[in-house]
Write a structure and sequence with these properties.
The protein is built from 9 helices and 13 strands. By secondary structure, it is α+β, with helices and mostly antiparallel strands.
Length: 282
């Protein structure tokens, strides 16, 4: 089988481990979506493509490959749904998932112009990307400082939920769950190390919510960030297509098995599924 990694970083620990599992019995190639030069040879497609990239160029390339019959994990459309946090929240809440209440502000400047917030806010870039904004603001002064740095940044706003200061990171590969604890990026002391979290110790409602995300968003490899909103109630604050899943025993094996099965069986989607929403470069 020919397995192609759509990524600028084939040495990422997860991808490197998967490559090691698949070779030498199978051929693993890399295609950098951001590289200059001619595009892929559409007359000689790989058996499956693993989309470990999320730029607009990567999504456009994945959509092109799908149009020519190639299976892509995750699909371009499913990946794009996780890049726009406005659409992410709307899709999740419409499906009844316990997703944090989220509203949209056209720019940080407009948000700052609203004045002092009624309570602490979590502010995130509308479009998920490397180096995006994820921060907390408690005052009009903090909002103005943010707006001064990124006045035209479109953002989403969530009310801050009092929690333990730990993010519960749940990852799913083809229906198999993995989990860890990580200090919230909003914590005063920073993230710190990632700690192991046995899946069996998670409440059933948490694992059910994580698995339901895959069904709702059409994802097969993804991550869900959860907070304990009190009394063990889960609150989803973010969803990521094809996250790193570092240091999780069994994750590379699950991904390699999924890639091979998809390569053998193929994967098709409706025209609506293949339609990629607009994702900004900002």
């Amino acid at each position: 089988m020919r397995i192609c990694l759509l990524t600028a970083d084939p040495g990422h620990p997860l991808l490197a481990a998967v490559t090691g599992l698949l070779t030498p019995e199978h051929r693993v190639e890399t295609l950098d979506p951001g590289a200059e030069g001619p595009g892929p040879d559409l007359s000689s497609l790989a058996d499956v493509y693993l989309l470990k990239a999320r730029t607009p160029r990567a999504l456009a390339l994945a959509a092109l490959l799908e149009e020519h019959g190639a299976p892509v994990l995750n699909s371009a459309a499913a990946t794009a749904r996780c890049q726009d946090r406005v659409e992410m929240a709307a899709v999740a809440r419409a499906a009844g998932l316990p997703f944090a209440g989220t509203r949209f502000a056209a720019t940080l400047g407009e948000l700052a112009a609203e004045g002092a917030p009624a309570g602490p806010l979590v502010i995130k870039s509308r479009f998920s990307r490397r180096g995006d904004l994820v921060t907390r603001a408690d005052s009009a002064v903090q909002l103005r400082e943010l707006a001064a740095d990124r006045p035209e940044e479109p953002v989403v706003v969530q009310e801050f939920t009092v929690n333990s200061g730990w993010d519960h990171k749940l990852w799913v590969v083809d229906g198999q769950l993995f989990a860890a604890l990580r200090r919230s990026e909003l914590a005063p002391d920073g993230r710190g190390p990632t700690l192991p979290l046995p899946v069996g110790e998670l409440p059933a409602s948490w694992t059910a919510a994580a698995l339901r995300v895959g069904e709702v968003f059409g994802l097969e490899v993804y991550g869900v960030d959860l907070l304990d909103a009190g009394g063990g109630a889960p609150l989803i604050v973010d969803i990521n297509a094809f996250p790193g899943i570092r240091g999780q025993a069994g994750a590379p094996e699950a991904l390699a098995a999924l890639a091979l099965r998809t390569a053998v069986n193929g994967r098709t989607g409706s025209a609506a599924e293949r339609k990629v929403p607009q994702v900004s470069e900002k």
